[in-house]
Amino acid sequence: MTHARTIWEEGREPGRRVVALGVALALTVAALDLELTGRMSLLFDLVFIALSVIVALLVHPRDFFAIGVLPPLLMVGVFLLLALTRPETIANHGDGVVQAVVSGLGHHSISLFVGYALCLGSLAMRRHVLAQRAEAAASREAHDPRNADESLVPAE
């Protein structure tokens, strides 16, 4: 008997692809946000939160660690690029690179916290569901009469 797969069991993409997708989408939304508003705004925050959940749901279970550390590194990476090229988009005009990154992280800390918490929560839920499914499959296999130990069957 097979069960219907849940959203927690669907992710099958390799970690490298999911990380590359996350970086590409984060940079794209950052560029779009800058084009529309001239600063990093709520648009970036909302997409960052959604992106953090999406990557957690797409990745193959063997690559959970790569995605478990992705959201903070992704935000720092985007803000570092902005601090090097357009620091006024995340900080005050005239702030140095380090100060701009710290300011950007401070201004967007709620979205970082929420996105990271949802990412880790999704990974934890996926791990729990996959462990339950594996345990149930092992239990079914152990109780399957076709798997009975042949040494217990009397010889003819």
UniProtKB/TrEMBL annotation:
Domain of life assignment: Bacteria
InterPro entries listed in its UniProt record: DUF6542 (IPR046672)
Keywords for this protein: Membrane, Transmembrane, Transmembrane helix
Positions of the DUF6542 domain: 14-132
Taxonomic lineage: Bacteria, Bacillati, Actinomycetota, Actinomycetes, Propionibacteriales
Protein name: DUF6542 domain-containing protein
Residue spans crossing the bilayer: 41-59, 64-85, 105-125
Annotated signal sequence range: none
